[in-house]
């Protein structure tokens, strides 16, 4: 368990450091989808650590991974997006295994403009601190975990819109006064592929500031079910979408560390209800509580894994540093119940 945790930390560290070497990559880039780039490199580093590769083999693993890396941002708002992440994990493992077999690549790949610099024009690698005084990124910043499956930037929109809804329905028996809404204005960063005024599919809805705002205004919250076809095409939502406009304040840049969303609903009587979100619930500055994290896992796993397996995964992950044989986790993930868990803790 400790070996797996250390490998996970190494993977996050490599991925995070590479992001920090490019402002474009760690915000919202224009060409390459970051999980397909730095995710592949992080996966290779984690697998290299878990497989106990030596220093030369680790360099080769990263070089091989770089040749697997990259996916166009244009596919990020399609059914292909999950493939980017899946391929990153798969190709990182393949790169480590190939390095272990002796395959070699350019060992300076991380330092070269024609290496990692090929993905991001502002890529600027820095010398890292000595190991004795090395600051781990996970010690400095928590992990952001989405509450619902949509582009990260839309989570600011969801929280602001949900707050506006609470104010709107205070005196209307929890029903949104849709007929009294004149206009909805969203102040968000300019991100072209998340600006979708009339999404026609589930995947377009997941990448639409407008859809998430209107859905949260109608329902008060967001979930995976929000993107089901019957909800994407319901008349009330389509009516609200037609009233929704985007604005891009100059100070609202597309940075996951500093962006904000302000939602304003203008009513026919001339009044305006506004709320602003600067840090959504699930952001690394406001991480999910344990019970909400478990709830998300269970909602994703239900129908795929039996209840006993889900319980086993949760217990194993919370006690991972005590687990002697991580194959028990694979057993649970395959849907089986592991009777040998106590002996392996």
TrEMBL record:
What do the Gene Ontology cellular component annotations say?
A: mitochondrion
Which superkingdom? Answer: Eukaryota
Chain coiled-coil ranges: none
Domain MmgE/PrpD N-terminal intervals: 2-125
Q: Which GO terms describe its biological process?
A: defense response
Recorded family membership: Belongs to the PrpD family.
Q: What is this protein called?
A: IRG1 decarboxylase
């Amino acid at each position: 368990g400790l070996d797996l945790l250390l490998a996970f930390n190494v993977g996050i560290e490599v991925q995070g450091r590479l992001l920090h070497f490019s402002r474009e990559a760690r915000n919202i880039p224009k060409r390459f989808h970051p999980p397909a780039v730095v995710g592949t490199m992080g996966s290779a580093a984690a697998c290299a650590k878990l497989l106990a590769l030596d220093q030369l083999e680790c360099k080769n693993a990263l070089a091989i991974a770089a040749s697997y890396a990259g996916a166009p941002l244009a596919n990020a708002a399609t059914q292909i997006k999950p493939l980017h992440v899946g391929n990153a994990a798969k190709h990182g493992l393949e790169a480590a295994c190939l390095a272990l077999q002796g395959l070699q690549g350019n060992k300076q790949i991380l330092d070269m403009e024609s290496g990692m610099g090929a993905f991001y024009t502002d890529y600027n690698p820095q010398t890292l601190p000595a190991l004795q005084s090395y600051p781990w990124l996970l010690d400095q910043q928590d992990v952001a975990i989405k509450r619902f499956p949509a582009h990260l930037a839309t989570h600011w929109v969801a929280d602001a819109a949900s707050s506006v809804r609470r104010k709107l329905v205070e005196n209307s028996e929890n029903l949104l006064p849709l007929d009294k809404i004149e206009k909805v204005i969203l102040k968000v960063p300019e991100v072209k592929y998340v600006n979708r005024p009339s999404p026609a599919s589930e995947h377009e809805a997941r990448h639409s500031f407008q859809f998430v705002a209107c859905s949260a205004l109608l329902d008060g919250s967001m979930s995976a079910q929000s993107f089901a076809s019957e909800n994407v095409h319901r008349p009330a939502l389509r009516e609200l979408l037609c009233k929704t406009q985007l604005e891009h304040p100059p100070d609202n840049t597309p940075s996951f560390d500093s962006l904000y969303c302000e939602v304003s609903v203008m009513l026919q009587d001339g009044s305006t209800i506004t709320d602003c979100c600067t840090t959504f619930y699930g952001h690394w500055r406001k991480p999910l509580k344990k019970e909400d994290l478990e709830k998300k896992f269970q909602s994703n796993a239900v129908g795929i894994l039996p209840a006993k397996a889900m319980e086993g995964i949760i217990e194993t992950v919370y006690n991972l540093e005590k687990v002697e044989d991580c194959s028990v986790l694979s057993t649970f993930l395959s849907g089986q119940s592991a009777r040998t868990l106590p002996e392996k803790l």
